[in-house]
Write a structure and sequence with these properties.
Residues 1-22 and 230-282 have low confidence and may be disordered. The chain has one helix spanning 271-274; strands at 4-10, 15-21, 26-38, 41-52, 58-69, 117-118, 130-132, 162-166, 185-194, 198-209, 218-227, 236-237, 252-255. It is 1% helix and 35% strand.
Length: 282
């Protein structure tokens, strides 16, 4: 986003107007919760977006994803279902095998509604340019420690530094208004959990700019909740799907209305690598 504020500059014989651009503004994280069913297993599909207030605001990366608490499941890091086409999953609904890579999600109808993945905008297809950063390779402890497999795993890490980025910023995949992003929202991830459970609250930071060449990269932090039970009172009926297959049916959709107030943060270690190509943003 680049808004212009006009400021009169006084002179003895003329008055000039100086345009001063303002920076992009992050509004918060929002989640849309949709009930889905696959193979008789009742699931919740939670799609998390970053919302902005300008016409060209652009997400460059996400980082420091960390669990905050309030889960109703015993293991929130391992609470997520996958149904992707990775060779270690093969399109089977599973919590044990899968990947967070959007390029391996597979079919838009048979896989995508039931698969957990992470993106910087765009659609979970082979053409998506979102990639894991090196934070997935180390840190943490026990079963959820980082490793050589990166994000080619079904669980999330407990190292507190998980991140992903758009590896081709000039394609504007993370920009509002560039399809399938809406005029205000950029998709950051889809999390599929068991129906009527909660994987708790998660904190996430993002790097973004106003989409103009040479504009400064800004950082903000907020939280979102991967839950179904906490929003039951706010659920509204969704439009029925005509001739939907049993594994595709959705019954109702919920949108959380809580705005998470961002705060400025310091540039984290390693961010220079993640943002190396961001200077060419257009």
């Amino acid at each position: 986003m680049c808004k212009n504020t006009l400021i009169p500059a006084l002179a003895s014989t003329t008055a000039a107007l100086i345009a001063v651009p303002t920076q992009a503004a992050f509004v918060g994280f929002f989640a849309t919760v949709t009930e889905v069913t696959s193979g008789g297993i009742l699931l919740e599909q939670i799609r998390v977006v970053a919302r902005f207030n300008g016409p060209t605001d652009t997400v460059l990366n996400a980082f420091n994803l960390v669990y905050q608490g309030d889960a109703t499941v015993a293991d929130p890091y391992g609470a997520f279902w996958h149904k992707d086409n990775s060779d270690y999953n093969g399109g089977v609904l599973s919590k044990q095998y899968g990947t967070w890579a959007p390029t391996l999600t597979g079919s838009a109808t048979l896989n995508r509604p039931f698969d957990s993945f992470l993106v910087i905008g765009g659609t979970a297809t082979t053409g998506n340019t979102s990639n894991a950063d090196p934070s997935w390779n180390s840190g943490g402890s026990g079963a959820h420690a980082g490793g050589a497999q990166g994000w080619s795993r079904a669980d999330l890490l407990n190292n507190g530094t998980m991140g992903w980025f758009n590896s081709a910023p000039p394609n504007n995949q993370g920009r509002v208004g560039v399809s399938p992003n809406t005029a205000t929202d950029v998709l950051l991830g889809q999390f599929v959990i068991d129906r009527n459970t909660s994987a708790g609250t998660w904190r996430l930071s993002i790097g973004f700019n106003d989409g103009q060449a040479g504009s400064a990269v800004q950082f903000a932090t907020g939280t979102f909740t991967a839950t179904s039970t906490a929003t039951d009172s706010a659920r509204v009926p969704a439009a029925p799907l005509s001739a939907a297959r049993p594994s595709q049916a959705t019954s109702r959709t919920t949108q959380t209305a809580t705005i998470r107030t961002p705060r400025s943060i310091r540039t984290p270690r390693g961010i220079a690598m993640r943002m190396a190509t961001a200077s060419g943003q257009r």
